[in-house]
Each structure stands twice: as C-alpha cells, then as structure tokens.
Design goal:
Its cofactor is Zn(2+). The protein is of the alpha+beta class. Among the domains are: 7-197, Immunoglobulin-like; 451-553, Aminopeptidase N, middle-beta domain (Immunoglobulin-like), CATH 2.60.40.1840; 752-882, Zincin-like fold, CATH 1.25.50. Helices cover 40% and strands 21% of the residues. It is built from 26 helices and 31 strands. Helix 8 (556-565) runs antiparallel to helix 9.
C-alpha cells in the first residue's frame, strides 16, 4: 500500500475558519439517510493569509447539494476527493448548506452514524463526524448545535440528540420528528444521535444550587430491569463531583443509552452518553461483582467528562490525555471513595504494569502527549489514559489535596468553553500554588518507564540512614536520550518489630510523620535520615507514588517481612508480589529446582499467615494471594531473558498446585467460612467475602480431585448470583472431566437469550487451559451466537484467548498466531479500529525465544503484505516490524 501520511504535533495550525452555529437535519430511512447541515461560518482573522480555501473533512459521503447563502454552488467552485470537500473564494462570513447521502446500515466500522440491531447510533470520537457530513472535524472548532431527526414512528419511537428537547411532532406516512438544541459550544466529536425502539427508566437529581435534573437511561425492552445500579451510580457520581470538586451538571436532562454494538466502553457526548451495554446492564443473576464495580466506574468516568473534556476540551488530538488522563484520575478517586482505597490502588497498578509498562517498552511506545500519529484511533492507549492518570496523581501528591483543588478551580475559571493543551492545565496548577513544575512537564513529552535504583546505608555510630536514588529511562522509538525527571517517591522506614519509624531528614528541625515524599530531580540524589535508632527496612514507593520501575535490591527475607508488617497496604501487596514472582522467575531460569522443599516452605508460610489473618481486609487478602499471572511473569522475565511461555506455565502451575496441596484444609475452611449469608449484596464487605471464597475455590480446583469437582459443581448448580456461578464454571473449565462439558452446556442453555452473559461463556472457554483448546475456539467462531461484527463478541472470544491464555496462544506449533492473523485480516475489512487493537498482540514478538520470534514475524509480514490493509493496522504492524 501507499505509505500513509503521518500527522505531527509540530505542524499544528489554528483553523482557518470558525463555525459559530451548526444546524443538522437527519432524514433516517432504511436504505439511505439524508443529512443536511447548515453552518454559520466566519474566517479566522487572526491568520494573515486571507486566501485560504475552506477545507471540510468528509469520508464515504455522497454529496448532493452545496449552497452558500442559500445559492447553489457550481461544481467548478469546489473540489471533492475521498477525504475532503474544498471550496474556493468564500466570503469572510457566510452560511454554508451541504446535503449528503449516507448508508448507516452498511457502516460496519461503527464510526460516524451506523445502524446495528435496529438502532441508529453515532460514535464520532475521534474522527467519525466526517462520516456523517462535511465539516472541519477537529476538536478546536467549537460550535453550538441544533439537530432535527425524522424517522418512522413505529420502528424508531425514541429520537435523541445532545442538549435539551426543543420541539417534536408528526409528518406524513406515520413519521415523526424531534428537535434538540445544545446551548453549549462543543467540537464535532461530542455530537450524538440515537434513534430506536427503546424504553427508559427515569429519576431526578437536585443539584447543590437547587436545580432539578432529569436522569434517563434508555435500553432495549428486555433490559429494563437491569438499569437500577447504573442509575444509582450516576447519582453517586453527581454528588461526589459536587462534594470533591464543586462541579454541578449544567443541562436540564442527562441521558444514557445502552447499545450492544460499540467499539469502546462508552462515550461522553454532551448530555447524551452512549454506552456499550456491558457498562450499563446489571442484576445479580447476570452480572458479577466486578461488573457492578466497572459499571459504577465507567458511569462516573463519562459523567466527569462533562467538565474535564466537554466544558474544557482539546486544542488538538495530541492533547487527548488532557481529558482522558485527568478523567481517569477522577474516576479512580471516586471508586476509591466508594470502595476500598488500597484495593483500588492495587487493581489500578496491576493493570498499569501488565499493559502500560509493556507498551512503554514496545514499538508503539509514545509520550503521554504523542508527537505524531497516522490514525488517531490507535492512540487511545494505556499510556494516554492510565499513565496520564498517574501524571495527574503525581501532581495531586506534590501539591496536596487542597493545592490540587485550587489548581482545578483556576483551570476551569480560565478555560471554561475553550479548547486547550496539557501546558494550560499544568500552568493553572503552578499559578494556583506558586509552584514550579517546569521539569515535571517532561512526563508529558518523554516516552518510556523511568527506572529507579536505590542504594541504602546505615551508620551505626551517627544513627543515620542514607538512600541514594539513581534514575534512568531506557531509549524508546525516536527518543534515545532522556532527561532526568521530577519523580515523587513516598518512603517509610520500619524497625525490626515492624513499626513505622518517625522520619526526619538531615537539616529538618523535627520528624515529619512516618511517610515522607522525596522529590527526585537529578540523575543521582542522596537523602539522609537522622535519629534512626536501628537499621530499618525501607518501604519505598508507598502508594505507588510514581509510575516507575523500582530496583531496590530487597532480599527475599525483607520482602516477606514487608508482606507481614508494612502499614502501607499497597507496598505490603507489592512486596508479596515481588516475593512470589522472584521465586517463580528463579525457577524458570533454573536457579531453583522444583523439588526444593526450602523454597516451597518460604512461599507457603507467609502465604498461610496472610490467608488466615483476621485483621486484614478480605479483598486485600485476595489480591495479595493472587499470584502474578503468566503474562506478568513473562513481562518481568523479558527484562533480562527471552520469554518461554511453556516453561512459565509449568512453573506457575507447579507453585499453584503446591500451595493448594499444602494448604488444602485451610482453603476448605476459608471456603466454608465465607459462604453467602442472606441476600446478595454489592457492599464492599460482601464483595470481599465472595472474592476470598472464590480465591480459595480456584486454588482447590488445582487439585482436580473428584471431591473438589463436586464442590465446584455444587456451587455452580446452586449459585444465586453470577459471581459465584461464573467462578465455579471457571474452575471447572480447566479440568478435563465430564462435569466440565455438562456445566458449559448447562450455562449456555440457561443464558442463551442474554447476549452479555454469553460473552462470559465465550470468554471462559477461550481462557481454558485444557490442551488443544484452540480447536474449540475455532469451532465457536461459527457458533450462531458469535458475530465477528460485534466488538464485544470479538473481545470475549478472540482477545480472551490471545491475551489471557498465553500458554495456549504461544503454542510452539504457531497455530495461535495463525488464528490471530486470520481474525485480524477478517476484521480489517469490517472494522479496522478493532483489527488494529487485535494486531497489538504481536508488538512484543522480539521478546520471545527465537523459534516463536520467527513464527510471529512471519505473521506480521503476512499482514503488512496483504492488499488493501487499513491505515489503522498498517501503523501498528509497520512499527512492530522495525
């Protein structure tokens, strides 16, 4: 293919024309949809060149009419190609009317306006609006929108768009219309339209200033009983944003629509959020505890965007983390306040290390504010979202809670209604606190994960303890040299009894508590603590105060000590993970033999102590005792040696089985002691109890005895909630027995009419570690309930196999790689955005042992040499092959 154009941040220029008002008319038909736009346009007089033509973005559009100030424009006055409509010699200000024809029913990319499952729906972020009508489809062109929708009344009784409903009525032939108006200026990516046969639940929220806001959640008829949790989550988010940031909702109505066919999790369109139904629909029988938590989190995230993303938006797409990193931080804080702060922090960091750290170490490594891209859709990444949130968290930690709130207040005061940059955000934080964050800005412009090594020394004579930090950041594509970063490192010191020591740095008059924030600015920096009465064990990077890799050279004895005693629950968990991972990695590398009883004893004793603790939170225990996954072990091993998935699988299975065998009686007691008591509840205590119970069941399942199979079958058959039902099915899915097949079939028969539950059914089978499971997965591709056009189904079956079942996916036969290549090429023609995300599974092919490297490289070459490969997939694969 012809090499696609690369867009660069350095080439950004302000728009040549502004759009003050946008009036849209949609005539929705079964075969064609007519879209008429009327734009009030004026030249950007800040630009010196007054001869610049009007260039509008457009893709897959059939142009019918163009008018300027109500007069038809002759064809020699404009030029049209596959990407743009260019109009020459336009007035300084004018009205432009454009009528286009589109076919939403054939739009399988699920971008722009598309029709799926009988519902018309839009997804315009990042560049989908250009598939609806000709427009300057960029976030810095903000306009006030009105939208009139006309459609068949019986098929599409609900007609929705952004803002407030202004008017509605009937036309001829049983068609009706609705007119919506959004009083706030917004970029085109925030436009939304929905038309379908939907029902809704309604509630109301009274803001702090006394305004009443109507809340509605629209779903298909059969899902009306699954909306209650989403509604309560929305109301909690609205109150939290008022209490914590002083931010109120600004329209008369807030709407959520749940659809089954959606590329993303959800979209924050102003006043009309469109959600993947996975993040709305829930009741105990069909949704797990994790589903309930994720719904609350995503509902909150999209609501918080109303201010961080909508009221203040982006100058260009390179600034994506300005809204996404900030809003992820806000939803993380909300979830922490609603549940357990330590458990939430552990969950977020585990995800960051499992997905974002490898991204930083791979061919798609990019700064949080990227410098270039081919397809913007490829940069909705963990780096932009989760690392972006960590940058916000560091600012919060450096400035403190009150200082951060002052910065947020100033940010909104300065920039409400504007399209801005990450620099504008950091400047507001600086000015509100008289702080200097110039060096901190490097977090936005430098790619890669910084590494911090620590050398420690205790002076018995002077009773001082020194810590020397050295930071470095490995080279990344296009960026070999890195500058020293401003890195906040929270530390504590523990005495031999496991108690926190008071901390006093040299030069300070008195101790400053038991946790202190050390700010690293230089490549090497030493901090000295005074009045340290005995050699301490340091607790470094408490709360994961910065997204870095820590090389602290802890001994296994120190790690076990911190696991048992650290008052910082995150670092306590982290110490346990390092302890367990270190042992397994040494086994993989042959430094420890599997039969070494001392090694098993070193793992089992602290494991048992944690398992039986009556003081620790049960959810925290579950996280501590969840061993590093095969993928996590592979990431750690790849830092020093090639990855051998077969060997990693054998070692982890050996350790897990050994723990299960040694602690069988303890696991059985934990399992019995944490059985459901009374009605199902999703409070933190109930969720914690179920998580510990099902953790015990998963370990017992490793024994694969008739007795354990019976326990799992009993839970599966009698479960009154999806959490317990799917946990039992998960245990059985890994055991070769007749009960496994029966449970899988029974689950399908029970839930075959619920598409979201069937996603769990597909995912459970894709993650099964039964040898040769790939043949079953290929068979499931032809199952009547699977559709390659539905992103949820693809993620459930294909992504679960390739991403969550590394032992099977990386089988030395290469069958897993061929399977994935076939799916990527199939999706490339249907939905390039999803195909590109699938292609990312091959990004780290160079980190595997030589035989697997060769197999994966061959698949990448096959993909890139395929005719008509999309720009989305090309960008991912071409970078992987460099």
């Amino acid at each position: 293919m012809e090499k696609p154009e690369v867009k660069y941040l350095k080439d950004y220029r302000p728009p040549a024309y502004w759009i003050d008002n946008t009036e849209l008319n949609f005539d929705l038909q079964e075969t064609n949809t007519l879209v008429k736009s009327v734009l009030n346009i004026r030249r950007n007089n800040d630009l010196s060149d007054k001869t610049i033509p009007l260039v509008l973005d457009g893709k897959n559009l059939e142009l019918l009419f163009v008018k300027i100030d109500k007069k038809h424009l002759d064809s020699d006055k404009y030029q049209i190609n596959s990407e743009n409509l260019t109009i020459y010699d336009v007035p300084e200000s004018f009205s432009l009317e454009v009528t286009t024809k589109i076919q939403p029913q054939n739009n399988t990319s699920l971008e722009g306006l598309y029709k799926a499952g009988g519902i018309f729906c839009t997804q315009c972020e990042a560049e989908g609006f250009r598939k609806i009508t000709y427009f300057p489809d960029r976030p810095d062109v903000m306009s006030k929108y009105s939208c009139t929708i006309t459609a068949d009344r019986e098929k599409y009784p609900i007609l929705l768009s952004n803002g407030n409903l202004i008017n509605s009525g009937m036309t001829d032939q049983n068609r009706h219309w609705a007119q919506w108006e959004d009083p706030f200026k917004k970029p085109s990516y925030l436009f939304a339209l929905v038309a379908g046969d939907l029902v809704y639940i309604e509630d109301f929220y009274k803001t702090k200033s006394g305004r009443s806001v109507t809340l509605r959640i629209y779903v298909e008829h059969m899902n009306i009983d699954k909306c209650g949790h989403a509604m309560q989550s929305l109301k909690k988010a609205m109150k939290w944003d008022e209490d914590v940031f002083g931010l109120e909702y600004d329209l008369d109505i807030y709407m959520i629509v749940a659809v089954n066919d959606f590329n993303m999790g959800a979209m924050e369109n102003k006043g009309l959020n469109i959600f993947n139904s996975k993040y709305v629909l829930a009741k105990p029988e069909t949704a797990t505890d994790i589903d309930f938590w994720n719904i609350e989190r995503v509902i909150a995230h999209e609501y918080f965007h109303n201010w961080t993303g909508n009221r203040v938006t982006l100058k260009n797409w390179f600034q994506l983390s300005l809204k996404e990193g900030l809003t992820v931080f806000r939803d993380q804080e909300f979830s922490s306040d609603m549940t357990s702060r330590p458990v939430k922090r552990i969950s977020d960091v585990r995800s960051l290390r499992s997905f974002q750290f490898p991204e930083d170490a791979g061919p798609m490594a990019h700064p949080v504010r990227p410098e270039s891209y081919i397809e913007m859709d490829n940069f909705y990444t963990m780096t932009v979202y989760e690392k972006g949130a960590e940058i916000i968290r560091m600012i919060h930690r450096i400035l403190g809670k009150q200082g951060f709130r002052k910065g947020m207040n100033l940010y909104f005061k300065r920039h409400d209604g504007q399209a801005v940059t990450t620099e504008d955000f950091v400047k507001a934080m600086e000015d509100a606190n008289q702080a200097d964050l110039r060096q901190f800005r490097l977090w936005y412009s430098q790619a890669g994960t910084p590494e911090i090594s620590v050398k420690r020394a205790y002076n018995h004579k002077n009773k001082t303890y020194s810590m020397t930090f050295t930071q470095k950041c490995p080279p990344s594509p296009g960026m070999s040299e890195k500058k020293a970063m401003h890195i906040p490192v929270a530390v504590g010191l523990l005495d031999k009894a496991g108690n926190d020591m008071p901390l006093q740095l040299a030069g300070q008059d008195k101790p400053e508590g038991t946790t202190i924030l050390l700010n690293l600015y230089k490549t090497t920096q030493t901090f000295e603590f005074v009045n340290v009465y005995e050699p301490p064990v340091p607790s470094i990077l408490r709360g994961f105060s910065a997204p870095v890799k820590l090389r602290a050279e802890y001994t296994s004895r120190e790690q076990a000590f911190l696991l048992a005693n650290d008052s910082d629950e995150f670092h306590r968990w982290d110490s346990g993970q390092r302890f367990f991972a270190g042992t397994m990695i040494n086994m993989v590398q042959g430094k420890i033999k599997n039969h070494d009883p001392d090694v098993l004893g070193a793992i089992i004793e602290p494991f048992r102590k944690t398992l039986l603790s009556t003081e620790l939170d049960k959810a925290f225990i579950s996280h501590v005792l969840t061993l590093p996954s095969e993928s996590e072990l592979g990431i750690l091993i790849s830092e020093t040696a090639p990855i051998d998935p077969e060997l990693i699988h054998q070692v982890r299975r050996f350790i897990t089985h050994a723990i299960a065998k040694a602690l069988k009686n303890d696991f059985e007691r934990i399992y019995q002691d944490n059985q459901e008591k009374g009605l199902y509840n999703i409070d933190a205590e109930s969720i914690a109890r179920r998580s510990l119970k099902n953790l015990a069941l998963s370990y017992l399942g490793m024994l694969e005895t008739p007795e354990i199979i019976k326990i799992a079958c009993n839970q599966f058959n009698k479960a009154e909630n999806m959490t317990d039902e799917i946990a039992a099915l998960g245990v059985l899915s890994h055991i070769q027995c007749s009960e496994r097949e029966k449970a899988i079939d029974d689950f399908y028969q029970k839930w075959k009419s619920d598409t979201l539950v069937l996603d769990k059914w597909f995912a459970i089978q894709a993650g099964s570690q039964i040898p040769g499971i790939i043949d079953k997965i290929k068979e499931l591709l032809n199952h009547p309930d699977f559709s390659i056009k539905n992103p949820n189904k693809v993620r459930a079956l294909v992504s679960s196999f390739c991403g969550m079942n590394p032992w099977q996916f990386h089988h030395i036969s290469g069958n897993g790689y061929k399977f994935m290549t076939d799916r990527i090429l199939e999706l490339n023609a249907i939905n390039p955005q999803i195909a590109a995300r699938m292609a990312g599974i091959f990004n780290h092919w160079k980190k595997y042992e030589p035989s697997r490297q060769k197999l994966m490289k061959a698949e990448l070459e096959k993909i890139i040499n395929t005719p008509d490969i999309s720009r989305h997939v090309y960008e991912i694969v071409s970078k992987a092959l460099v």
